[in-house]
Amino acid sequence: DTGVSQDPRHKITKRGQNVTFRCDPISEHNRLYWYRQTLGQGPEFLTYFQNEAQLEKSRLLSDRFSAERPKGSFSTLEIQRTEQGDSAMYLCASSLEMFLAGVQDTQYFGPGTRLTVL
Amino acid sequence: AQSVTQLDSHVSVSEGTPVLLRCNYSSSYSPSLFWYVQHPNKGLQLLLKYTSAATLVKGINGFEAEFKKSETSFHLTKPSAHMSDAAEYFCVVSAATSGTYKYIFGTGTRLKVLA
């Protein structure tokens, strides 16, 4: 069990540049989530996928943000025209659907990608 | 809607003494509740979860939590703190019955363990 992996672990960029992060979930997990965590705060939900379908997006996910999961396996999160306010830890999590209506599955988190926008 | 409030941003205990981290939740649906721990430069690790089975939930590393519906609380406890317990702890609420699987995190409690 290799767990959820994220790449890169750290990214420093200049304001206005585009960045892309990758998340590889646990292999049999069909759900994948993105969260953002700023200093001193708990993670905040951004979006989630079930297989390749993006089923929910937070209002935090402005039009500069886009996420994909093209083959239902790994996912990418792209931020265009980065701003200093985008500096945060971006966390990915995955879970296995329980196939029982109303039953919450457990999410397993990756180590995160720390983004610093100068 | 769901929300969670962690009542203490920082808690300090001496090694070997009990730990209590407090969490209150709000949910319009039957909630699932979780506690996660985050050590510096490491990912979030699940400690325990409540999903409408037994109200007293036992987790890893000697932690446990009790779901009290009347008090809308899900406090995390451990009988005896260890130095390795020093970390950030997050209480999480979710409600699959509402049609969403996202987690709502509290703001975290930083636990300090004194030698």
Compact summary:
Chain A is mainly β. Chain A is 0% helix and 47% strand.
Protein model, in words:
The complex is a heterodimer of chains A (118) and B (115). Chain A is an all-beta fold and 118 residues long. In chain A, 0% of the residues lie in helices and 47% in strands. Chain A has strands at residues 5-7, 10-13, 19-24, 31-37, 44-50, 53-57, 65-68, 75-79, 88-95, 108-109, 113-117. In chain A, the strands form two sheets. In chain A, strands 2, 4, 5, 6, 9, 10 and 11 form a seven-stranded mixed β-sheet that branches. Chain A has a four-stranded antiparallel β-sheet with strand order 1-3-8-7, with no helix packed on it. Chain A is globular and about 45 Å long. Chain A starts with a strand and ends with a strand. Chain B is mainly beta and 115 residues long. In chain B, strands 2, 5, 6, 10, 11 and 12 form a six-stranded mixed β-sheet that branches. Chain B has a four-stranded antiparallel β-sheet with strand order 3-9-8-7, with no helix packed on it. In chain B, a hairpin with a 5-residue loop joins strand 5 (32-38) and strand 6 (44-50). The radius of gyration of chain B is 14 Å and the shape is globular. The model of chain B has no long low-confidence stretch (mean pLDDT 92). At the A-B interface, strand 4, strand 5, strand 9 and strand 10 of A face strand 5, strand 6 and strand 11 of B.
